[in-house]
């Protein structure tokens, strides 16, 4: 396919205007679509996944590209992630270079426009005593407690994660909603509603 950026010797995307028309207003020349994207890379990252926790644990690395600085890690908020050098936007979801690049424990949340939001990967797994139910908060609040795991350093809050494994990995197919409680036979406690990605959503108090 002809390269619009090399028509008549022009490097089109480096020009300010062509025949008096500014580059921003030129969509194509002779039906060849203009593409002035910048795809730096490749960079090795894993994803997409349904959560930061899953992306940070993923070891299936692939090559991606960005309009940002590919040689630094992490990328920065507002960078765009591409799935190839032709600037095809990466699928929305969560990505991470954690197991692909040394000493870069970060998560990239990518929206439908390919724009990156950078956060740190969840912290090391912490043990937590909880009861569990797939039925309701009422059942969870009345159950016996055993050891589960969370990325939270204290009492979990909405947006944190609860896991069944010590690797803090959301393994296998999870119910749409699971209910955990830290009441553990005490007079009061909290119920955490967790979605299929092991992430905490609504939080409610346990009744007596």
Task: Using brief descriptors, characterize the structure shown.
208 residues, mainly beta, six-stranded antiparallel beta sheet, 16 strands, 5% helix, elongated
Question: How many separate domains?
Answer: 3
Shape: elongated
Order of helices and strands: EEEEEHEEEEEEHEEEEE
Q: Provide mean pLDDT, rounded.
A: 84
* Cα-based radius of gyration, to the nearest Å: 23 Å
Q: How many beta-strand segments? A: 16
Please characterize this protein's 3D structure.
- With 208 residues, this protein is mainly β.
- It folds into 3 domains: 4-33, no CATH class; 40-120, no CATH class; 126-205, no CATH class.
- Helix content is 5%, strand content 35%.
- The chain is built from 2 helices and 16 strands.
- The chain has helices at residues 52-57, 137-141, and strands at residues 17-18, 21-22, 28-29, 32-33, 40-49, 61-66, 81-82, 93-96, 106-110, 116-120, 126-133, 146-150, 162-163, 177-181, 190-195, 200-205.
- It has a 6-stranded antiparallel β-sheet.
- Strand 15 (190-195) and strand 16 form a beta hairpin.
- The longest helix has 6 residues, at 52-57.
- The model has no long low-confidence stretch (mean pLDDT 84).
């Amino acid at each position: 396919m002809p390269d619009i950026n090399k028509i008549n010797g022009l490097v089109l995307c480096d020009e300010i205007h062509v025949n008096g028309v500014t580059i921003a207003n030129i969509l194509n020349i002779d039906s060849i679509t203009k593409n002035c994207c910048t795809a730096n890379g490749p960079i090795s990252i894993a994803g997409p996944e349904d959560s930061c926790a899953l992306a940070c644990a993923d070891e299936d690395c692939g090559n991606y590209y960005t309009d940002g600085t590919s040689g630094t890690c992490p990328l920065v908020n507002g960078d765009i992630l591409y799935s190839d050098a032709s600037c095809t936007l990466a699928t929305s979801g969560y990505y991470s270079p954690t197991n692909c690049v040394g000493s870069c424990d970060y998560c990239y949340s990518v929206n439908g426009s390919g724009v990156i939001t950078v956060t740190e990967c969840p912290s090391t797994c912490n043990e937590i005593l909880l009861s569990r139910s797939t039925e309701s908060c009422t059942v969870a609040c009345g159950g016996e407690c055993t050891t589960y795991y969370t990325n939270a350093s204290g009492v979990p809050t909405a947006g944190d994660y609860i896991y069944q494994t010590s690797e803090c990995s959301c393994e296998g197919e999870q119910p749409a909603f699971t209910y955990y409680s830290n009441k553990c036979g005490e007079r009061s406690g909290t119920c955490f509603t967790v979605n299929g990605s092991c992430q905490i959503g609504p939080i409610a108090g346990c009744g007596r």
